């Protein structure tokens, strides 16, 4: 579907608040624009974003047509244990794009 970019600290101490950033390359077409043929360009947006930390959801968001292209999300979570952060973007067609990153907690 699209290219993703995630930023997660590689290491942290238990209890640290870590900043996480995620972006997906996506046109976020609202369905309100007209194409060169005068027809409306079909809506195609990312509807849902979620981040799981070692299997537990720590952040999620619903996106709407007002969201810009290539949506960027930044949030924080508490580093509790070493594990994998899994990012999931779901679009209007039900397509899912995923990315993951590891964090080592001492």
From TrEMBL:
Pfam family, one: SoxZ
Gene3D superfamilies: Immunoglobulins
SUPFAM superfamilies: E set domains
Protein name: Sulfur oxidation protein SoxZ
Annotated Sulphur oxidation protein SoxZ domain residues: 9-101
Transmembrane residue ranges: none
């Amino acid at each position: 579907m699209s290219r993703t970019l995630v930023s997660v600290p590689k290491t942290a101490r238990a209890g640290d608040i870590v900043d996480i950033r995620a972006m997906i390359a996506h046109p976020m077409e609202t369905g309100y624009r007209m194409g060169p043929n005068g027809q409306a360009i079909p809506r195609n947006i990312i509807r849902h974003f979620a981040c799981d930390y070692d299997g537990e959801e720590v952040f999620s968001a619903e996106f709407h047509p007002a969201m810009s292209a290539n949506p960027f999300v930044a949030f924080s979570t508490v580093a509790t244990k070493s594990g994998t952060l899994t990012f999931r973007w779901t679009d209007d067609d039900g397509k899912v794009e995923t990315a993951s990153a590891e964090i080592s907690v001492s």
